[in-house]
Amino acid sequence: MSTNRDTTTEETASRVLVLNSGSSSVKYQLLDMRDRSRLATGLVERIGESSSRLVHTPQDGEPRERTGRIADHDQALKAAAEELAADDLGLDSPELVAIGHRVVHGGLKFSEPTVITDEVLKEIERLVPVAPLHNPANITGIRTAQALRPDLPQVAVFDTAFHRSMPEYAARYAIDVETADAHRIRRYGFHGTSHAYVSRRAAELLGRPVEELNLIVLHLGNGASASAVAGGKCVDTSMGLTPLEGLVMGTRSGDIDPAVTFHLKRVAGMSADEIDALLNQRSGLVGLCGDNDMREIRRRVDEGDERAALAFAVYIHRLKKYIGAYAAVLGRVDAVVFTAGVGENSAPVREAAVAGLEGFGLAVDPERNAVRFGEPRLISPGGARVAVAVVPTDEELEIARQTFALAHN
């Protein structure tokens, strides 16, 4: 390949493939960073099962679906590559500049996007004990992508990285320091790419530099987390060592007295694995009322279902506690920002979360709150002392942005 071709390719290469590898799924997006457009998106799910399914959607076309067994992540990524190639977007394209990987846990070492080397991969592996459900799948996706394109930069973007700016007093648990340090026990936080993206977009909406703002960001999906953001940096967040701590979630309990686990072991005879499954998979909204879909819960509340009403009340109560706590941590709040599936789409949640907090300067305008719109918007009344906003999150774009920036350094 000539020097001229190399230079031209380097200057024009603008595509980033974003991979989010779960234990039995792979989500992918191919983005063109010149205009931040999505050239294709896809999902491979139920990997390893006979009922595996791949859905691929090109930018200007109809979704295509494959069914049938996809044995492992290697086959999943190869199938995705075939679908991309069918749209002339193959992984062998000289326009592909890098592959960005969502990695859930970066521990203390990684506070920014990082080009993946053998040593970086070893460190991600060392963190498996504190992220046993997530990091192994992330590692599998990385290794498979490296095998497909060993010549391309592979970049890890960590869910925990945005929260590394927390002061030590916010990150520490009040347990024996030697024990905590020996086993890496501290508060790491998660959903960091979402909190980073939403903080920046909220500042754009308000027309002010993010460095001047104090924000409370509420990422409310099936998983949910809150963060206090001062000057664009996280100073506190609700999730901890794992994504279990904090807000009430779809299937996770959030905050709970640690002694509950001892009680369940002693009185109910439950094993550690059984308690883990209870708190992560059979708690939260689904544990309280049998549903983890907020739309269904609200339908049941409107029909007078008492269990659904209790679940909703518990969810909102915990949310208000964190808003109040983070207002105290920040001292001054410029905006409360709702994002993710529930935060972006559930007007009743947003209304209930700030109801009664007028003393904090918080209120929503009913008409603005009722509007469904896929762009950042204010839902507080005109002239409100504290803005209340809805900002759709875009974690894939944030991963692509950070990957592209690092690949061009």
Task: Describe what this molecule looks like in 3D.
- With 409 residues, this protein is α/β, with parallel strands linked by helices.
- Helix content is 40%, strand content 19%.
- The chain is built from 16 helices and 14 strands.
- It has helices spanning 3-12, 73-86, 118-126, 135-148, 168-171, 177-182, 192-206, 259-267, 272-281, 284-289, 294-302, 306-330, 340-345, 347-354, 366-370, 395-407; strands at residues 15-21, 26-32, 37-45, 53-58, 64-67, 96-103, 114-115, 154-158, 214-220, 224-230, 233-237, 335-339, 377-378, 387-390.
- The strands form two sheets. The chain has an eight-stranded mixed sheet, with helices on both faces.
- β3 (37-45) and β4 form a beta hairpin.
- α2 (73-86) packs across α4 (135-148), α11 packs across α12 and α12 (306-330) packs across α14.
- It starts with a helix and ends with a helix.
